[in-house]
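Anyone able to model this chain together with magnesium ion?
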Amino acid sequence: MTAPTLPASDSVAQQTAAHILREGGLVGMPTETVYGLAGNAAEADTVAKLYAAKGRPRFNPLIAHVTGLEMAQTLAEFSPLATKLAQEFWPGPLTLVLPKLPNAPICDLANAGLDTIALRAPRHDAARALLKTFGGPLVAPSANKSGAVSPTTAAHVLEGLGDQIDLVLDGGACPVGLESAVVAVEGDRATLLRPGGLDRATIEAITGPLAAPGQTDTPSSPGMLKSHYAPGAAIRLNADTAGTGELLLGFGDMECDLNLSPTGDLAEAATRLFAALRELDARGPDTIGIAPIPQTGLGEAINDRLQRAAAPRD
Ligand code: TXA
Ligand code: MG
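re: yes, here you go
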């Protein structure tokens, strides 16, 4: 059976969603980045069900979504730098990985038993309303099968997970279109674990140069599996023209089958990326060729997703 969909801005729908979550159910929730699959972060049974629905390995920890700094401080230890980042960029597309407080009301499975926890206060009105009505932290990985392309519409959520979840709140297309940037903060040191919908330069204005994961003793993100975001077709990067059996996803002024942004606007390309991959894939090509994307601003996160989509699948 496919899960029902309700309008995300409707207050009765919000009450229904919060009720389902209190009963241990799973709800597709719009955020400004991508749709999340929300569940009660405190309940191990719910979180186990969530991992199973996504087919996600249990060593890959989840992000706990919060209303803001106040709720976050009940879960993690905030250094002055972490506090500054939260004040500057929350609500918004930034996830902070911080030392978990020993008594945090989060089940061990939610953060894969690590001594750190990932936290994010989403900016989307529907996500904020749901967190407020529910009244506690919600884990919410992207609402897709593990390894598949992330969902930016309610229809995408239903396509991948419709028979595994209880409700989808439909908030239309996600405005940012790429997942949050994930930054680990240890004292005054910040490491970029995943580039995302808040670009490097904006974060570095607060942190100074971000460290890269794997440098010395910096933490790594267990979720950074190489192959991810993979459509059915093979992916060929830096394509200028379409080859045989190939559809071309363009960027900037060029001939192609679908264009991420004819004017070369990286924010527009980010918003459209995942829906475009799905749309071309549905036409059944052998390969999707993708035009070069500049590595500046949001281009870093777009290229990160494209490299994973193109990576060997096993
Ligand atoms: O924009 C987003 O972040 C979306 C929306 C729904 O909020 N969520 C999302 O969740 O992308 P997910 O589960 O697909 O990605 C979470 C990432 C993974 O790469 C995971 O490994 C990493 O965050 N992560 C979570 N907890 C961590 C921790 N304690 N230490 C290091 N990495 C962590
Ligand atoms: Mg994901």
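The longest helix spans residues 266-282.
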